[in-house]
Amino acid sequence: MDFTSQREKMVWAQLAGRGIRDARVLEAMRRVPRHEFVPAKFLEDAYEDHPLPIGEGQAISQPYIVAAMLEHLALRAGDRVLEVGTGSGYVTALLSLLCAEVYSVERHARLAVAAETLLERLGYRHVHIRMGDGREGWVEHAPFDAVLVSAATGEMPPMLFEQLREGGRMMVPVGDPSSQELQLIGRVNGRPMVTILEGCRFVPLVEGIG
Ligand code: SAH
User: Fold this and answer.
1) How many angstroms separate the alpha carbon of residue 26 from the centre of ligand 1?
2) Among candidate residues 84, 93, 85, the one with its CA nearest the CA of residue 28
């Protein structure tokens, strides 16, 4: 299978074609081999326009929604970023190309270990993965320039906002399990400034560890 041309097509049709403009985001999505992050039985679908199951009832996110979240975060090369919900490690890999350090928290031990092993094998650097409840963030490494939450929550977890630096940005899907909206939350004078973006559908952000 020619994954490189499938990936090119994904970037062109699903991302650029739908309005993603950030050149760094498009380049990162062109480089990260998404097929390495999906289970073998879904290899043929790796570059399709939808999420895919990764075990434990979880899913690798749809390419477009990942690109939209990364674009809205407007990451800079020197940023330190917190990711909540490592899952397959796909977004972790993209983040590691877009910023300086990635701290990622995953509640499922099996997923956390698998993602860490895979990212190391593929040579992604400056990635730190911890098993735990991501709603608590990773206080030892706070404050963060940006926070990306890959699971849906009824309301923005306050501990994550506390770990955002002044001027920092958070992307979080807010809503109930069947319908959510992406929110971009900036920290301005210590207060959340919320911009509501498009609709989305993520697995729930679950309390405690798995
Ligand atoms: N970005 C990932 C998305 C995985 S789905 C990818 O593309 O592969 C969301 C992930 O969030 C799941 O792996 C799930 O186990 C994890 N998750 C859910 N609640 C969590 C919590 N409270 N803390 C940490 N991870 C959580």
Assistant:
1) 23
2) 93
Global pTM reads 0.98
Which is the catalytic residue, given 61, 88, 104, 150? Answer: 61
Model confidence at 94: pLDDT above 90: yes
Find, among 205, 99, 193, the residue nearest to 146 by Cα. Answer: 99
- The amino acid sitting at 101 is E
For 131-187, write each residue's pLDDT tens digit: 999 999 999 999 999 999 999 999 999 999 999 999 999 999 999 988 999 999 999
Q: Which residues line ligand 1 (CB under 6 A)?
A: 54, 58-61, 84-85, 87-88, 90-91, 105-108, 111, 133-135, 150-151, 203, 205-206
Active-site annotation holds for 88: no
Alpha-carbon dihedral 149, 151, 153, 155, rounded to 10 degrees: 10
- Report how far residue 20's alpha carbon sits from residue 63's, in angstroms, rounded to the nearest whole number: 11
Q: Residues 89-100: what's their mean pLDDT?
A: 98
